[in-house]
Input
Amino acid sequence: MLSLAERTQRELREAGGFTGGIVRIGCVESSAAQELSQLLAKWQQSTPGVRKAEFELYCADSDDIRSSLDEERLDVGIVLEPVETAKYDSLPLSSADRWGVVVRSDSPEAQLPALTQDELVKLPLILPRRHIVIDTLHQWLNGGPEPLKIAGYHNLMTNALTLVKAGLGNSLCVEGAWTIRETPGFVFIPLSPVRLARHQLVRKKNRLLSRTAESFWAYCADHWRSEESDTQLSPKISDSQNH
Output
């Protein structure tokens, strides 16, 4: 992340007519990262004067991204729903991921096509640390007769996989967080019935961004409006998820 001094210098150059600038973006680990890359590329191609724009990409979970938006260390962020509409302006993204569990490929569960509630409660789980995800998981299970076996918590998949490899538990995550670092020795198993994680592009309300960041937000808003007018917006599951 850039220091406040560096950021100020860049924004002063923008104010003096600098045609580049910087947009600071937070993104959860999911298939939304692919959609973000496409949006950035199309924005650069279609908007004069931003070809020199620099991107500062910050990977974190939704809670950290919202905190960085609140502290104005990020301009915009891609987070998992739900979104606090009182605090943030938001635009829906078309990408969506299935929830599931990453297990070791030598485990008995690795041969299953999906994990039902009865099978899920038998596994020691390493859960995302977000309270809202944990609450939602309990809602899915409808307060079933068996409590979850919680082995621990994670915020990003990178180190969670080392815990799975050591046999400490199985990582609950969205499929996109797995497919962007698909690793031999592990298998992703979706939940049954299917549970989807949808995404929103958000910014802090009543906050004026740099010209570069405002340009990117405006492009995304126009892009979403054109998609909405062409067809009813529906989640798109990536090709890797259609199997």
